[in-house]
Structures are given as C-alpha cells and as structure tokens.
C-alpha cells in the first residue's frame, strides 16, 4: 500500500498530464465545497471574491463597451483585457465565471511550472516534489484563484516568466526569452510594481551573456520586445489623454482618495508607519473618521495613534481637533455621498464603486474646510520628516515591513478554509504561513550568494521575493496580499533550505548539485 501511494504521488516530473490534473483536482476541491455549502455572496457567480478592487478592473471595460472610453483608467488594462475578450461574447456574470475557471486552470499549470523551475535551479528531482506539494497545499495563495483580482494571474505569469527564463539558460533557444518577456510584460500590466523585475532579469541576461562571451543585444531585444511595444502603445494613449508621459499606472490612489482629504490623511499616517487599510476599523486611517461605506460603524474607543510621533507642530489634542474637523466635513458631504452610493447599480458588487468616482466638495464651506484639513495633514507630515527623520525614513518602514509580513492576512488564511474543519485548519495554515515565510526568506538570502558564485539563474529565483518584500514597505504600501505573487518563490526558496538542511545533517550526497555545497 505504501509503495503504491509512493509510486502514485511521486511519478516522473515529465508526466505533465498527471501533475496538472492533480493540481486542478486539489485546487478545485475548495471551490466545490464552498459551492456545495452555498458559501458565496451571489448565487449566479462562481467567484467568492468580487470585492475590494474588483470593480476597478472590470468597470473600465464596461465603460469602454458602452461609451468607447477606457474610464476610469486608474488601472493598467492587463486584467481588463482578459475581461474584455469574454465580455464581448457573454454577459458579465458568465464572463466572471469563465475567468474564475480559467484562473483555476492557469494556476494549476503554474504549480507544475514552479516545480519544474525548482528542479531546474536546484537540479534535483526531490526539489520538484517538495515544491509542487508545498505550493499546491498553500491555502494562503489558493484563496485568490476564485477572486476577480490580479493576485492569481500575477503569480502564474511571474512563474511562467521565470520558468521560460530558466529554459533559455538551459538550451539557449531565443523563443524562451520571448515567452519570458511576454509573460513578464503582461505581469507589469497586471501589477506595475513588478516592472523592476523585468529589468532585473534583463541585467541577469546581460551578465550571463558577458560571462559566456556571447553577444547580448539580440537576446535582450527579443526578451524586451513585447514590453516595448505594449508599453509604447500605452504611453502614446496616455499622452493623447493627458498630454503627459505616463509609462505605467495613472497614480497610486483611487480618484476618490486622490481628490479628497483622504490622500493627505493616508500620507500623514504612512509617514510614521500607521495602518491605512480601508476595511480595518482599527486602522489609524479609520481613527480619523470620514466616509468609507454607508452603514459602517464609527470607531469610538480604539486609539491607534502612538505617542512617539508628536512634534512641535502637533500633539494629541491637535489630532483630536483635526478629527472633529474631518467629521464636520463629512457631515456636510454626507448627502452627496449617500446620493451617489444609492444611485449606482444596487447589485452587491458595485458597493466599492464610490472609491473611483471623484466626489468634489458640495459647497464653499466644505471646500474651505477640506483645504484646511489638507494643509494640516501636510504640515504635520512635513514636521515628522523634518524633526524626526529617523522615524520618517527608517522606523516607519520597519513598522510597515512588520505589517506587510505578519498582519492583515487573517482574511486570506480563514476565508478559504474547508467548511466543517473550523479552527484546527485555520491554526494549521497560520503555522504553515509562518513556516514558509521564515524558511523562504532565509533561503532567498542564501541563494543570492549561491547565484553570484555558481549559477545566475538562482538570482532570477530569489530576486522576486526579496524585491517584493523590500519594495512595498519602501513605497509605504503594506497590504499583506501584495506578497501573494512572490509567495510561490518563497516556497521554492524554502525548498532550498529544507533540502540543504537534509543534505547537511543526513550527509545525503544524492540530494545536491551545483547549488548545494
């Protein structure tokens, strides 16, 4: 029996049909159970996650189909393009369901490709098995496969890009460079922050060519041609619209936030590392009050403002006074906000539309009050920057790094739990998350040296989690879900640590290769 199970679950890595079908089967169990138990917000949708940012990807396409204009254009159209293809043929509910099914299939394929990438980098068949099953069983990442957001496809396209990049290193066929550039270019149109990975891979390609006394102009051009053409078209479109050079997304804030006092509140709170998560009723952003969504309860007792942030320009009393001003402003603004909210499509998934519809002050008094609020938040932020530069430049980002890695992931670890298992499975996945995170970061750090010393392709693997973990606190955007695209690469780096530890302690000479000492 034991040998039969071993033969079944440890088949040859070349048996791609088995591995992809196994991945699809296991990834499909949770959605099936949730459908069976009726755990979805809309009976017409397979999706369990048309929430948060989802409308900002789909509504611009609805606008394009109805008016001919991609608006609002806060997002690059990497995800919207996929929705556009299916929306041309089907209703929006059918298009959503097709995308969810497609994400499950693509994600299943990416699990297999990640395992192949791990085997390629570590040149070890056990690395394939370990990476495959560790990623497949990760509830943290699997949750997003049925969400109409970019996390699932971003993870898959990042894996496809890295895998094809590794294939080029193996056999020097230029077609793999083209495919790598294709998927990484699409990734940028899903998540613009990953444009740096595109350039990091380009540098690795140049160093590889120089190291092997080969010319790099042609390979580099083939690698980058898709991004050059696609982003060039996007730049031309943006220049015609705004008479400005906009190579990536059109700002980091929703129009509603960017055109209101909330932008200034966000920047003030971020300046000392405070939480700015909109759904979090305990965040520092929410502490100041204002409008999130109709029906939300006001925060009355929770106080998330630390004592160490005060300067000569403001103190606790200053912030309480500013909080009162914000409440007064929103009292003036409330009729317009409620009128807008209740005028949109009443389906549940339109609730977040308010975030990307700019709402101007409704009166001269409201406009003057908003200007005063804006100037105070800006002045307080500038005083932190001037009087406490360590807090502003260093400490705040350390605090945000902690939030990024260890906080606000509860929803992703618990929403996707298997019905009927309760707290036990939730506890397991919390521990599993920490296990992968700690081993993955350790493995990524060690692989930097191994990549420089032995094989540059290891840098292509470890650079993704290192960059992702560092860049988001640096730009002061520390939502834990932004870690998702790098999660499979943390698992691969964790595989490296597990196998290296096994090799060192058990003296197993068959586990290692050029990467393992």
Comma- or semicolon-separated keywords:
about 525 residues; mainly alpha; about 65% helix; about 0% strand; globular
Descriptive account of the structure:
The chain has 517 residues and is mainly α. Helices cover 67% and strands 0% of the residues. The protein has helices at 2-9, 16-36, 54-67, 78-87, 92-122, 125-136, 139-142, 151-171, 174-190, 195-211, 217-242, 255-258, 261-271, 284-287, 316-343, 364-387, 389-406, 410-414, 423-453, 457-474, 487-506. The longest helix has 31 residues, at 92-122. The chain is globular.
Query: Radius of gyration, Cα only, in angstroms?
Result: 24 Å
Number of helices, counting only DSSP H or I runs of 4 residues or more: 21
Secondary-structure element sequence? HHHHHHHHHHHHHHHHHHHHH
Q: Which consecutive residue ranges, at least 5 long each, have pLDDT under 50? A: 339-353, 511-517
Question: Quick one: how many beta strands?
Answer: 0
Helix content: 55-70%
Approximate strand percentage: under 5%
Structural class: mainly alpha
Give the CA-based shape.
Answer: globular
What is the arithmetic mean of pLDDT? 84
């Amino acid at each position: 029996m034991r040998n039969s199970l071993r033969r079944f679950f440890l088949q040859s890595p070349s048996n791609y049909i088995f591995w992809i079908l196994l991945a699809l089967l296991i990834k499909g169990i949770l959605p099936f159970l949730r459908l069976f138990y009726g755990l979805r917000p809309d009976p017409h949708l397979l999706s369990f996650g048309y929430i948060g940012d989802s409308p900002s990807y789909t509504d611009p396409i609805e606008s394009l189909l109805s008016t001919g204009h991609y608006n609002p254009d806060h997002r690059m159209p990497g995800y919207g393009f996929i929705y556009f293809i299916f929306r041309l043929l089907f209703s929006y509910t059918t298009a959503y369901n097709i995308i969810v099914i497609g994400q499950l299939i693509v994600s299943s394929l990416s699990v297999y490709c990640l395992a192949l990438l791990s085997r390629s980098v570590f040149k070890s068949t056990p690395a394939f098995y370990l990476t495959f099953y560790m990623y497949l069983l990760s509830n943290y990442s699997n949750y997003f496969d049925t969400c109409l957001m970019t996390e699932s496809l971003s993870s898959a396209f990042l894996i496809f890009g890295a895998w094809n990049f590794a294939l080029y290193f193996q056999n020097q066929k230029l077609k793999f460079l083209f495919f790598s550039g294709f998927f990484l270019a699409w990734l940028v149109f899903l998540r613009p922050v990953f444009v740096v990975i595109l350039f990091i891979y380009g540098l690795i390609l140049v160093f590889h060519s120089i190291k092997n006394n080969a010319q790099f102009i042609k390979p580099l051009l083939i690698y980058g041609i898709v991004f050059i053409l696609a982003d060039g078209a996007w730049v031309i479109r943006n220049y015609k619209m705004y008479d400005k050079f906009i190579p990536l997304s059109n700002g980091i804030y929703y129009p509603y936030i960017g055109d209101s006092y909330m932008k200034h509140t966000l920047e003030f709170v971020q300046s000392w590392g405070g939480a700015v998560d909109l759904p979090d009723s305990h965040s520092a952003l929410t502490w100041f009050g204002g409008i999130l969504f109709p029906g939300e309860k006001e925060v009355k007792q929770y106080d998330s403002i630390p004592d160490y942030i005060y300067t000569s320009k403001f103190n606790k009393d200053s912030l309480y006074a500013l909080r009162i001003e914000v409440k007064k402003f929103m009292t003036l603004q409330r009729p317009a906000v409620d009128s807008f909210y209740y005028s949109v499509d009443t389906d549940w998934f339109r609730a977040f539309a308010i975030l990307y519809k700019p709402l101007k002050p409704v009166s001269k008094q409201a406009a003057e009050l908003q200007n005063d609020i804006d100037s105070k938040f800006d002045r307080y932020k500038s005083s932190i920057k001037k009087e406490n530069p360590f807090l502003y430049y260093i400490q705040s980002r350390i605090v945000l790094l902690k939030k990024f890695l260890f906080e606000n992931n509860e929803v992703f670890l618990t929403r996707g739990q298997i019905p009927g298992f309760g707290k036990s499975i939730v506890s397991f996945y919390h521990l599993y998350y920490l296990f992968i995170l700690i081993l993955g970061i350790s493995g990524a750090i060690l692989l930097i040296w191994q990549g420089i010393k032995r094989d540059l392709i290891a840098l292509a693997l470890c650079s993704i989690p290192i960059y992702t973990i560092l860049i988001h606190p640096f730009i002061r955007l520390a939502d834990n879900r932004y870690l998702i695209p790098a999660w499979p690469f943390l698992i691969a780096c964790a595989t490296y640590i597990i196998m290296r530890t096994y090799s060192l302690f058990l003296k197993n000479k068959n586990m290692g290769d050029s990467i393992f000492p």
